[in-house]
Amino acid sequence: MNVVLLEPEIPPNTGNIARLCAATRTRLHLIEPLGFRWDEPTLRRAGLDYWEHLDWRLWPDWPTFRAALPPDARLWFIEAGGPRRYTEVRYAPGDYLVFGRETAGLPPQLLHEHPDRWLRLPMFHPGVRSLNLANCVAVVLYEALRQLGFQGEVAPPGD
């Protein structure tokens, strides 16, 4: 699986997502511009000492990232207002889960170009528009991994 963060802004979110991706052996794609510097202490602290275990790529912009993907790459755009819930699709190994900036989400043009790939997390309170980005990534990624049978899971001690 692949997690894509388009222009992430908050270092602790990115650090937590990096740790999640390291733990699940999921490749993380970060697309610039980033809202922080690489030497940001909160970025490193949130990822703790897991950065060395992370498979990640840094891309200068969306067009460069998109051009590097195979034509048949399956991208899922997770954003509020999507026509389908994230649980209503079948994920496949190698899929890309795309998330936008914490303050602005994904660009509307991108969502409208791919309405069949636009997914949402259900919300239950009209006064709360979204969840924390790291939480959203964890929820969707673990659903995809669940559907794929948690392939590669480390056996618990004693098994």
Following the backbone from N to C, one meets helices and strands in this order, namely EHEHEHEEEHEH
Strand order of the largest sheet: 3-2-1-6-4-7-5
Radius of gyration: 15 Å
The number of helical segments is 5
Please give the domain count: 1
| Nearest-integer average pLDDT | 93
Strand content bin: 15-25%
Briefly note the structural class of the backbone: alpha/beta
Please tally the β strands and state the result: 7
- Cα-to-Cα separation, first versus last residue: 26 Å
Fourth-tier CATH superfamily name: SPOUT methyltransferase, trefoil knot domain
Q: Give helix % range.
A: 25-40%
Task: Supply the CATH architecture.
Answer: 3-Layer(aba) Sandwich
Q: What's the CATH first level? A: Alpha Beta
Instruction: Catalogue the unreliable spans.
Output: none
Keywords: Cytoplasm, Methyltransferase, S-adenosyl-L-methionine, Transferase, tRNA processing
Function: Could methylate the ribose at the nucleotide 34 wobble position in tRNA.
Domain tRNA/rRNA methyltransferase SpoU type: 2-142
GO cellular component, one term: cytoplasm
Features:
globular, cytoplasm, alpha/beta, methyltransferase, S-adenosyl-L-methionine, Alpha/beta knot, seven-stranded parallel β-sheet, 7 strands
